Every structure is written in structure tokens, then in C-alpha cells.
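Request:
You are asked to prepare a plain-text protein record giving the amino acid sequence and the C-alpha cells, at your earliest convenience.
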Amino acid sequence: MTTAFRTGFLALAVALAGFAALAVAQGAVGKRRITVASVTYDIPSEAKPGYIDGQDSLFMQFALPDYGPLRRDVHGWEDNVNLLITRQPDPISRQYENQWDGTPIGKKLKWNSIQNTYRIEPGFTVQEMGSGFDIVIPDQDRSTMPLGVMQCGKPKEFLPNAACELMFDRDGQRWKVSFGRQFMAQYGAIRTRVEAVMDGWRVREGNVK
């Protein structure tokens, strides 16, 4: 994992830990009704949703293997999956074209150039980027990228627990699901489980909760 990627991830983790602390401080029992990009969730407080009112974002941590609340966050990616939901910026396919397809808009820089490309069968193309991280693309229609794109760090001697972040669009939202790179082949199952948990808390038209 590169210094920039690691620094950015740590900064995000610190900020989101603050979100979680705020959420818990606002109420330790019952449910929290949180809306992100016009989608509303009623989330049990025991699940420790992280959010700031008016910021249109939601952070969750799930424990493996049951996807229940994460009671204690420990170093590494053996026991947890993280989720960040924000308002959808550009479609993920356009973000890929602009940042990671090797021909970005504007001046071409080393960090967003493709250094090497290889296949992981079945189903993945891996781009080793100049920045030091990998862009992993599941086989799909690249004009829309419904399966999303993964940005994965590389294991280092000083940082053996590399992470992958799966980014995809859903109902006007951008979902970022982070998990250990060792689970990369199971990205589809991880996405399905996370979506199922969140859909169980989703407030749909006509629901009374």
C-alpha cells in the first residue's frame, strides 16, 4: 500500500471514527434514521452507524463472518468489512475513464499511468498503477460497470494486511466496501451480504417503522 493511499485511508478512518462517536453520543438505544442521497435507513443504535447530520454520508463496520455489529476493531482485515455510503458523484464508469484507464483527462502523470496489466482467472483484470496500488476490474460491461471497480493496496513487509475497496453505484449513491485483499475473489458475495443487511434497514415507501 503506498504512502499516499495509506495516509488517505488513515485520515478517512480517523474522520469516520469521529462520525461513529457522534452517532453513539446522540443516542445509545433504539434506532437512528439516516438519509443519504434520498435513501433512508432505520439503523439499530447497537450497529453503531457513523454519520454527521447534513453531510449525506454513512459509515458502517460489520464483523465477519456473520456481518453483525463490530464490537472491537483490531488491526488487520481478518475480522471486518467496512462500508461508506455517500452521494454518487460521476458514474463509476466515468471515474474509471478519468482516473484509471491509462488515458486520463488532462496531463498524464505517473501515479495514474498503467505500469502493467495481467489477468486473474476467472474474471479479473488487474492494472498495476504508477501510484503503487492496483485497480482490479471484474469482467463486465465497461460502459456502465455495474459490478464496480476495486482499488487494492499491495501487501508490504511493514503492512502485510492490504485492503481492497470495492466502489460501485446504487440508487444514486456511491458505495465503498472495504475488506482484506485476501477476500478479493469473494467480492461479489461480500457485496451481496452488505447490501442485504442495509436493505433490511431501508425505509421504503409505505413502510411504517
Observations:
- The longest strand covers residues 80-87.
